[in-house]
Amino acid sequence: MLKEVPFTAEEREFATEHHNLIYAFLNENHLPEDEYYDVIVFGYLKAVRDYLARPDLQEYSFGTIARRKMKCCALDQYRAQHCQKRNAEVISIHVSLYDGGLPLEDTLAVPDSLLEQFEMDLLLHDLAKRVSRQQLDAVRMKSSGYGVRDIAHRQRTTVKRVRELLEEAHSALLELCYE
User: Fold this and answer.
1) In this predicted model, what pLDDT tens digit does every residue of 18-55 receive, in sequence order?
2) Three-state DSSP class for 96?
3) Structural domains of the chain, ranges and CATH numbers in brackets
4) For 129-156, where are the alpha helices, taking DSSP H only?
5) Which DSSP state fits 56?
6) With left for phi above 0 and alpha for psi between -120 and 50, is residue 136 left, alpha or beta?
7) Which entry of 51, 61, 63, 150 is 20 to 30 Å from 173 by CA?
8) Measured CA distances, 61 to 13, 16, 66, 99 (Å)
9) Mean pLDDT across the chain, nearest whole number?
10) Is 103 helix (H, G, I), strand (E, B) or coil?
11) What is the C-alpha to C-alpha distance for residues 167 and 145, in angstroms, rounded to an integer?
12) pTM of the entire structure?
């Protein structure tokens, strides 16, 4: 877990003393201050903490370490802003995709509940030839939204038996669909 630990007095003083590096970095890289300051400052603060905590970094100038950390933050921001998901093309369904063509909304199929019900009735009719009356009743109740317990209660049988009936009907339906 990431913990935020406040700067020590030494770190605060050091950060204040070298704060102008942030503006220099923004100017060198032609980055607008109002958009990138909040991004770059985190790299700068990480550089302050690392530079004072790790003696091996002190053989380099602080400016070098700070620029590297700020550059990483700028690149991460650039990658995040220019990734494909943030720049997807938006298409309106009210506008034609081609000159003189129909708008997309006119070419999309509208669900027809009457046709769907007719197809369901035909499917159940074909299924009725392959399954028992009890299985067909269980399938009809299940397609109407009843739960397995409700079906068992109405058919005066066990939940296990209803599951068996539905599984057998499912197998018959699959056979019907693959013919």
Assistant:
1) 999 999 999 999 999 998 999 999 999 999 999 999 98
2) strand
3) 9-85 (no CATH), 113-177 (1.10.10.10)
4) 133-143, 148-155
5) G
6) alpha
7) 150
8) 17, 16, 9, 61
9) 87
10) strand
11) 17
12) 0.48
